[in-house]
Amino acid sequence: ALAAAQRRRRRGYTAVVHRPDAADPVPRVELPTGTVRFLVPRQIGYARGDAADDGGEAIALAVWACRTADREQPDRPEAQVRVGGSATVVDRPALDAAVTLAADVLLTGAAHLGSGVDARLAAVRRDLDAAGLRWPLLAVDDLAGQLEAYAARGARYRPETFADLLAELPARRRAVVNAGATPPERVLGTHEPAETPLRRVRLTGLGARVRCSGGEVGVDVVLAHPAAVSVLVLSRAYPVTDDGTPTGHELAGRRVTGATLGALAAGNVVSESAVRSAAHRLRFAAGRLARTTVTPGAGEWSGLPPGLLAHDPDALAAELAGRPPRLLRPRTAAEAVRVLALGEVHAIGYAAGEQRLDATVTGADGGTATVTATHHAAAPGALDALAAALDGTHGRPRYVSGTVRRGADGLVVEPLAVVADAVVVPDLAPGAGDGRLAGAVDVRPDPVAAALGTASALLAQAAHTGLRHLAAGFPERLRTTAAGLAGVGLERCGAALSGLAGTLGADPGEPAVRAWVDAWIRLSVTAESR
Model-level pTM greater than 0.85? Predict the structure, then answer.
C-alpha cells in the first residue's frame, strides 16, 4: 500500500484538508478516490477511508496532504493543496481538441450541424477518457446529449444549456493555462475514477426531485453520506406511456433494491453494495453477498456534519460566495444541496401568475432565507404539501433540505424535503394541486436579473444559430442589449457584448469565438455573484 501511494505521490495529486473545529472535531481529507477521516488523535490505525479495497493507500496520501497543508497553509480551516508531482502545466492535447471542437460547434451552430460531428465527438470523448480528464469528459458527454436531443427534436434540448457547455470547456482550459488559484487537477478532474465502490455506508434520505422531459419522467433521490460529508444522487427514469404522465406520488411506489423510491427519499440506508461515480451518482451493484437495507426515517438530521447542515442562512450564503465559479467547479450532482435548521416560518405566499410558492424563514441561529418552489405537472401535489409542512400542519417544521443558491435578497432554498413530526417530500406527495394557497407574494421587478437574462438568451441564440449564420442585424441587437446592461450598472458586461458585436462579420473566426466565450463567462460569473 505504501509503495502504491508513493507512486501516486510521484505523479502528483490534489487534496482538500478539513481541519477539526468545535463543531466537527474529526479532521478529514478529500482525495480524488474518496474521503479519509482520522477518528482518534495520533492513532493512525483508526483512520478510515470510504472507498472499498484501497489497501490503505488512501490513508498514506491523506497523511502527506495534511503535512503539506501544515507547511503551506497552517492557518486555514480548509486547505486545498497539491502533493508531489510537478507544478508545471503539461501539454494536454485531448483538452485542446475538446476546446477546438467546441469552437467549431459554436461557429456552425446546433441548427446547422450535420451528422459529421458525431465521429469527432466520439474521438474527443475517447481521448479525454484515456487522459483521465473527468470534468471535460462529462461536459462533452452533456454536449453530445444536447445535440442528440436537438436532432431528435427532444424537449431535453435547451439553448442556454447548450451555450453553457460550449463556454465551460474553454473556461476550464483557460484556468489551467493561466495557472489560476484552483489547482489544475480540481479544474479538470484529473485521475478521478469513473466509479468507486464504497465500504459499508450509511446514507440519510434528504428528499427527491421529480423531472419531466424528453418523453420520460425521472426521479432523483438525494441521500447524504455523512461520513464523507457529501451528497449522492440515485436517479431513475420512466417512459411516458399512452396512459399519461406518471406523477411523483405514483413513482414513489416504484422499487429499487427492494425498497420504494419514497422510502429511500425519506429513510435511512445501509448498504454494502453502493458504488459512487465521479459525478457523485449512486448505484447499487448486484451480487448475492451484497446487501442493502432501508429503514424509515424520522428526520433526525441533527447529527449531520456542519458541511451539510447549516444553522445560519447568512453564513451559508457567505460560504457559497467563496466558492470558485460554477464553470470551474467539480461536476458533481447535487453539489449545492444543504440542510437548513429552521427557527421560524414568518410568511407563506403564492404568486398565482408564476405558480410559485414562497416562504420566508429564519435559521436556528438567526439569518433569513427564502424557500421557493414552482408548480410542475409531474408533481401536482408538491406546493400543497410544502405549504402544509411549513405552516405547521404536521407539527413545527425543524429542517428543510434543498438546493441552495444566493439571491438578490439572501439565501434561496429550492426544497427537497421538510422535517416536522414526519418527513415530507413535496415532489412525491399525493394530491391534484387543487388546494387553496393563501397569502400573496410581493413580486418586485429586478432590472439587473432581467438585463442579465436578456443578454444570456441573446448569446444562447447566437450559439444555437452559429456565429457564421447570424442575421445582418444581430450585432446591433448585441449593442442594444449592451446598453441595457450598462444602464443597470453592469458596464463591463455591456462592454463584453459590444466587443463581440465588433468581431462579427461575413466570416467570423477565432476572435469571434474568444469574444463570445468572454461575454458568456462574464455574464455567468456576474449572475452567480449577485
Answer: yes
